[in-house]
Design a protein that fits this description.
Layout lengths: L2 H16 L17 E3 L15 E6 L4 E6 L21 E5 L5 E3 L23 E6 L5 E5 L4 E5 L5 E5 L7 E6 L5 E5 L12 E5 L5 E5 L12 E6 L5 E5 L4 E7 L2
Antiparallel strand pairs: 1-16, 2-3, 3-4, 4-5, 6-7, 7-8, 8-9, 10-11, 11-12, 12-13, 14-15, 15-16
Length: about 250
């Protein structure tokens, strides 16, 4: 059987096994696109606890998943922000295996900045996510310009990635084997449906797969807003409109 036919058969079997949990659209130039499935029922929340609009997520070296959310605060329809402090805790920490809520904590520190507003290389129109690579390179999600910038550790511009398959990057995270994960939050049209997904890129920025789609079921996202990767290669997606965090694990 030709390799292309074997690959198509494998994707079909995955679809039969996981149904709505796996949805990958591979670029024609990437026949070995990775596949993931959503972990049903993750995370577990105690009675009375809930997540608000999830706007940030990260994983530490101990496998603890930190989720930043807005609790009972909602984004106003008139864009007039409520400046009063949010009364409920806004940082939740989960164990990566059971998804059990461990504790609340929050800490932040400003370091420095670079760049100017605009559409040119190294310029930004709504910086929405930043991640530091092991090699010292800095990856920046330039949301409204629909691209990812890559800078040296001192802030000098190296290159940028943008493509239709990548969509509009709200956040970016780095995984193993050179994989790059992007939260495509869509375009926020006046009426749904929108476009939202987890996008997997190769180390050169080539789109390998789009996982998930717009919606509020398992494996779907209303507005993918944050992404993080654990040491076990699990990928966590924060859905700001869906008020939840989802865990995707590789299909091996």
């Amino acid at each position: 059987m030709p390799k292309s036919a074997m690959f198509e058969l494998a994707i079909l079997l995955l679809g039969l096994c996981f149904g709505p949990f796996v949805h990958a659209e591979a670029d024609e130039a990437s026949p070995l696109a990775p596949s993931y499935r959503v972990t049903h029922g993750w995370p577990e929340l105690p009675e009375g606890e809930y997540l608000g609009s999830v706007s940030g997520v990260d994983v530490d070296s101990h496998g603890r998943v930190f989720v930043f959310h807005r609790a009972n605060r909602r984004w106003p329809t008139d864009d007039k922000l409520d400046l009063k402090p949010i009364e409920r805790p806004t940082v939740a920490v989960f164990d990566e295996r059971t998804g059990k809520l461990l504790k609340y904590s929050a800490k932040g520190e400003f370091l420095f900045q670079w760049g100017t507003s605009g559409p040119g290389p190294g310029q930004f129109n709504l910086v929405h996510g930043v991640v530091l690579g092991a090699d010292g390179r800095v990856y920046v999600s330039d949301r409204s310009n629909g691209r990812i910038h890559i800078f040296g550790a001192d802030g000098h511009f190296l290159k940028q990635w943008a493509s239709r398959l990548m969509g509009r990057p709200y956040a970016v995270a780095l995984g193993t084997h050179g994989l790059v994960f992007v939260a495509d939050g869509g375009d926020q049209p006046d009426t749904p449906p929108d476009r939202s997904a987890l996008v997997v890129l190769g180390s050169d920025g080539t789109p390998l797969a789009r996982i998930g789609r717009w919606g509020n079921q398992d494996g779907q996202m209303e507005m993918a807003h944050a992404v993080a990767v654990g040491q076990d290669a699990a990928v966590y997606i924060g859905d700001i409109s869906g008020c939840r965090i989802q865990k995707f694990v590789p299909v091996r």
